[in-house]
Amino acid sequence: MGKRKRIGPAVVLSLAACAAVSTAAAAPAAAATCYASGGNLYCDNAPAAIYAAPQYSRPNGNPERVVDRLLTTFSYFKCYRTGQQHGGGNNVWYYTYGDQTGSWGYVAAVNVYTSVDPYPGVAHC
Questions:
Q1: What superkingdom does the record give (predicted)?
Q2: Omega of the bond leading into 54 within 30 degrees of 0 (cis)
Q3: Distance separating the N- and C-terminal Cα atoms of the chain
Q4: CA-CA 20 to 30 A from 98: which of 5, 58, 71, 112?
Protein backbone atom coordinates (compact mmCIF):
# COMPACT_ATOMS: atom_id res chain seq x y z
CA MET A 1 0.00 0.00 0.00
CA GLY A 2 1.13 3.49 -0.75
CA LYS A 3 1.56 6.33 1.60
CA ARG A 4 -1.52 8.47 2.27
CA LYS A 5 -1.10 12.14 1.60
CA ARG A 6 -2.76 14.61 3.93
CA ILE A 7 -4.59 17.54 2.43
CA GLY A 8 -4.70 20.91 4.12
CA PRO A 9 -7.79 22.83 5.30
CA ALA A 10 -7.65 25.14 2.25
CA VAL A 11 -8.11 22.17 -0.08
CA VAL A 12 -11.00 20.85 2.01
CA LEU A 13 -12.73 24.26 1.89
CA SER A 14 -12.09 24.49 -1.84
CA LEU A 15 -13.69 21.07 -2.40
CA ALA A 16 -16.69 22.07 -0.27
CA ALA A 17 -17.12 25.28 -2.31
CA CYS A 18 -17.04 23.27 -5.57
CA ALA A 19 -19.70 20.91 -4.22
CA ALA A 20 -21.90 23.86 -3.21
CA VAL A 21 -21.57 25.46 -6.66
CA SER A 22 -22.40 22.24 -8.49
CA THR A 23 -25.42 21.66 -6.22
CA ALA A 24 -26.66 25.22 -6.78
CA ALA A 25 -26.20 24.90 -10.55
CA ALA A 26 -28.23 21.68 -10.56
CA ALA A 27 -31.14 23.22 -8.65
CA PRO A 28 -33.98 24.30 -10.96
CA ALA A 29 -34.74 28.00 -11.32
CA ALA A 30 -38.00 29.22 -9.82
CA ALA A 31 -40.84 29.21 -12.34
CA ALA A 32 -42.45 32.50 -13.28
CA THR A 33 -45.82 33.30 -11.76
CA CYS A 34 -48.39 34.11 -14.45
CA TYR A 35 -52.16 33.79 -14.59
CA ALA A 36 -55.04 35.20 -16.60
CA SER A 37 -58.24 36.43 -14.97
CA GLY A 38 -61.11 38.29 -16.60
CA GLY A 39 -59.10 38.64 -19.82
CA ASN A 40 -56.21 40.31 -17.96
CA LEU A 41 -52.72 38.96 -17.35
CA TYR A 42 -50.89 39.09 -14.02
CA CYS A 43 -47.29 38.02 -14.45
CA ASP A 44 -43.65 38.30 -13.43
CA ASN A 45 -41.70 40.60 -15.71
CA ALA A 46 -38.39 42.34 -16.24
CA PRO A 47 -38.14 46.09 -15.67
CA ALA A 48 -38.78 47.51 -19.15
CA ALA A 49 -39.70 50.51 -21.27
CA ILE A 50 -43.38 51.02 -22.14
CA TYR A 51 -43.93 52.26 -25.70
CA ALA A 52 -46.76 54.36 -27.16
CA ALA A 53 -47.35 51.69 -29.84
CA PRO A 54 -46.46 47.98 -30.04
CA GLN A 55 -43.12 48.65 -31.71
CA TYR A 56 -39.58 49.84 -31.01
CA SER A 57 -39.39 52.00 -34.12
CA ARG A 58 -41.77 53.63 -36.56
CA PRO A 59 -41.94 52.71 -40.27
CA ASN A 60 -39.81 55.79 -41.09
CA GLY A 61 -37.03 54.43 -38.84
CA ASN A 62 -37.49 56.88 -35.99
CA PRO A 63 -37.72 55.33 -32.52
CA GLU A 64 -41.16 54.86 -30.99
CA ARG A 65 -41.90 57.13 -28.05
CA VAL A 66 -41.32 55.65 -24.59
CA VAL A 67 -44.27 56.73 -22.42
CA ASP A 68 -43.30 55.16 -19.08
CA ARG A 69 -41.37 52.29 -17.48
CA LEU A 70 -42.18 49.10 -15.61
CA LEU A 71 -40.06 49.11 -12.47
CA THR A 72 -41.86 46.37 -10.53
CA THR A 73 -41.24 42.70 -11.30
CA PHE A 74 -44.86 41.52 -11.08
CA SER A 75 -47.37 43.49 -13.13
CA TYR A 76 -50.90 43.76 -14.51
CA PHE A 77 -51.42 43.62 -18.29
CA LYS A 78 -54.86 44.56 -19.65
CA CYS A 79 -54.61 42.81 -23.03
CA TYR A 80 -52.23 41.99 -25.88
CA ARG A 81 -51.72 43.15 -29.43
CA THR A 82 -49.45 42.11 -32.27
CA GLY A 83 -46.81 44.55 -33.46
CA GLN A 84 -43.15 44.64 -34.31
CA GLN A 85 -41.05 41.47 -33.98
CA HIS A 86 -38.82 41.54 -30.87
CA GLY A 87 -36.12 39.47 -29.18
CA GLY A 88 -38.67 37.00 -27.81
CA GLY A 89 -39.09 35.51 -31.28
CA ASN A 90 -42.66 36.75 -31.77
CA ASN A 91 -44.63 39.97 -32.29
CA VAL A 92 -46.83 39.94 -29.16
CA TRP A 93 -46.95 43.09 -27.01
CA TYR A 94 -48.84 43.46 -23.72
CA TYR A 95 -50.76 46.63 -22.83
CA THR A 96 -50.09 47.98 -19.34
CA TYR A 97 -49.54 51.12 -17.32
CA GLY A 98 -46.22 52.34 -16.03
CA ASP A 99 -44.79 52.71 -12.56
CA GLN A 100 -43.35 56.21 -12.99
CA THR A 101 -46.22 58.30 -14.41
CA GLY A 102 -49.09 55.81 -14.74
CA SER A 103 -49.12 56.19 -18.54
CA TRP A 104 -50.52 53.35 -20.63
CA GLY A 105 -48.60 51.65 -23.41
CA TYR A 106 -47.08 48.45 -24.74
CA VAL A 107 -44.34 46.16 -23.43
CA ALA A 108 -42.71 43.57 -25.69
CA ALA A 109 -43.61 40.03 -24.60
CA VAL A 110 -39.90 39.24 -24.29
CA ASN A 111 -40.02 41.25 -21.03
CA VAL A 112 -43.03 39.35 -19.65
CA TYR A 113 -42.18 35.89 -18.29
CA THR A 114 -45.04 33.97 -19.87
CA SER A 115 -44.61 30.38 -21.02
CA VAL A 116 -46.39 31.10 -24.32
CA ASP A 117 -47.46 34.28 -26.16
CA PRO A 118 -50.13 35.38 -26.29
CA TYR A 119 -50.85 33.93 -22.88
CA PRO A 120 -54.07 31.83 -22.86
CA GLY A 121 -57.08 33.69 -21.50
CA VAL A 122 -55.69 37.18 -22.14
CA ALA A 123 -57.94 39.45 -24.22
CA HIS A 124 -56.83 40.86 -27.58
CA CYS A 125 -56.82 44.69 -27.51
A1: Bacteria
A2: no
A3: 77
A4: 58
